[in-house]
Amino acid sequence: MKLLKGSVVRAEAGRDGGGYFAVTDFDEKYCFIADGKSRKLDKPKRKNIKHIRITDSMIDLNDITDKKLRNILKQFGDTE
Question: Where are the beta strands (DSSP E) in the chain?
Answer without folding.
Answer: 7-11, 20-26, 30-34, 45-48, 52-58
